[in-house]
Each structure stands twice: as C-alpha cells, then as structure tokens.
Design goal:
Elements (H helix, E strand, L loop, with lengths): L1 H5 L2 E6 L14 E6 L4 H10 L4 E4 L15 E6 L2 E2 L14 H4 L3 E5 L3 H7 L5 E5 L4 H11 L2 E6 L8 H16 L5 E2 L3 H13 L3 H5 L3 H8 L6 H4 L9 E4 L2 E4 L4
Parallel strand pairs: 1-8, 1-9, 2-7, 2-8, 3-6, 4-6
Antiparallel strand pairs: 4-5, 10-11
Helix pairs in contact: 5-6, 6-7
This protein binds D-malate (MLT).
The site of D-malate (MLT) has 12 residues, from loops.
Length: 249
C-alpha cells in the first residue's frame, strides 16, 4: 500500500509563468507548456505539416541573428506579426508548402517566454488541444511528476490554457496507466473549470479575453481550430535549444 502511494505522481498547474519559481514540485518532473491561443497550437501545426525543427526565442532582438541564414522567421508581439518576420503566429500560416523540412525560429508574447522559463525540467514538451491525448500518453510513459505551465497573458491568468490543463488532468485521471495523486489544488481547480466548459467549449471560449483581442485584430479565424482535440500525434520536445517532434510517426 505504502509502495503504491509512493509511486503516485503529482500533477501541478502553474496558472501563469510568474508562479513557476514557486512551484511545489521541485524534482523528477516534466513540464508541459501550453499556449492554446496561439503559440503552442501553431508549433504543433508546424510539426504536423512536416517542420524539421523550431527554435523558440524569448527576446525579440535575438531573431535578427537568424535572419538571412536559411531559417523561416516567425513572430508576434501582442498578436501582431513582427515587421522583420516572414510569418506571424497564426497556425494557418504554417502550411506544408511553407514549413515542410524547414527550421523555423519563433518568438511570441508569452509562449516562447514560458519555454525559456522551464529549462530546469527533466523534459519539456508542447501541448495543445490538437495533440492532447498524444501528450497524455507520452506523460504516462515518463513515470515522472507533471507540471503544466500555462503561458497565460503577460504573467496573468487566462482561461484557455487552464482549460487545456483541466482536459489533460482529466485524461490522466481516467488513464489506467498513470498512477495519479490528484491532491494539488491547482490541478483540481483546472479540472473543475474544464468540467464546466467542456459541455459547450466554443460557447465558453467566448468568455476568454484573448479570443476578443484576436477578434479586434481580425485574427480570430483560428478559434475553432485551436480548440479541436486530437487531430495530431506530434510530441514537440525541447532538446538542446530547439523543439523537435519525438513522436514515432
Ligand atoms: C503568445 O505567445 O502570447 C500568443 O501565442 C499570442 C498570439 O499570437 O496569439
């Protein structure tokens, strides 16, 4: 019995990157980075469409180092495409024709900052609704504690990343292969919110502030897509400074 409790894995949700240094889990953990609108959905889409690698960059100035060196440069601040970038941050920009076999350098307002922050983890992978179950299955194979790091908005809480966290907690709670210790209040809160929202997810998403920010900028054609679960098996993992797809496709 004691053995069974010891083997249980804790799951914790950091609702914003600023909470990450205060996380309760300090060792033997993997981090799932989530920025549903839109960075991590975009990263998953790029890999789904055959991208070779993605270099996430936190500082916007650093993308200049990669300019004119055969990389595709993608980036936004406050949702708006950077002037010196080839692509913005819409997943619909990252088509097969554009990204297959290419290395992309990307910087975003929140998503790439969260990746930068999590570098102390045993492994870092990228989650979105697109690859929800694939990430859930990957976690069950790791036998580690789990931190879901929500990119949020400028260190503030957001609903959409928390909903993803709740969906992933639900998947792991239902999984027979993951011995979950569901004792952390953050994971319970995310699960409760997801339980409310999933009844009519797109209707609930209307409450989120970034949905309306994107609408004001006429960038909200992606909403339904960003909340579509399980259309991809990609597992983007951060290894040696870049993201690569480690799924066995
Ligand atoms: C981010 O990283 O903050 C976002 O993905 C913002 C966006 O481009 O929608």
């Amino acid at each position: 019995m004691e053995q069974q409790i010891e083997n249980k894995k804790t799951i914790e949700v950091c609702f914003t990157p600023i909470l990450y240094p205060y996380k309760l889990i300090k060792k033997d953990f993997v981090v799932i980075i989530v920025d549903v609108l839109r960075a991590t959905t975009t990263i998953c889409t790029a890999f789904q469409n055959g991208a070779k690698a993605i270099v996430p960059i936190a500082n916007v100035e650093d993308i200049n180092k990669y300019k004119n060196n055969g990389f595709i440069i993608a980036g936004e601040r406050d949702g708006i495409k950077l002037e010196n970038a080839d692509l913005g941050n819409s997943p619909f920009n990252f088509t097969k024709e554009v990204v297959a076999d290419k290395t992309i350098v990307i910087t975003t307002t929140n998503g790439t900052q969260a990746i930068e922050m999590a570098k102390d983890a045993d492994s870092i992978v990228i989650g979105s609704f697109l690859n929800l179950n694939a990430i859930g299955n990957w976690i069950t194979e790791q036998n580690k504690n789990v931190i879901i790091l929500c990119a949020g908005w400028k260190n503030k809480f957001n609903l959409e990343d928390t909903l993803f966290a709740g969906a992933l907690v639900e998947y792991l709670s239902d999984s027979l292969n993951f011995n979950l210790n569901l004792s952390c209040d953050s994971a319970i809160a995310a699960l409760d919110l997801w339980t409310i929202a999933k009844e009519d997810l797109l209707d609930y998403v209307e409450k989120t502030s970034h949905r309306h920010r994107l609408k004001r900028m006429v960038l909200d054609d992606v909403i339904e897509y960003c909340f579509t679960p399980n259309v991809s098996e990609v597992i983007p993992a951060y290894i040696d400074g870049k993201l690569i797809d480690i799924s066995e496709k």
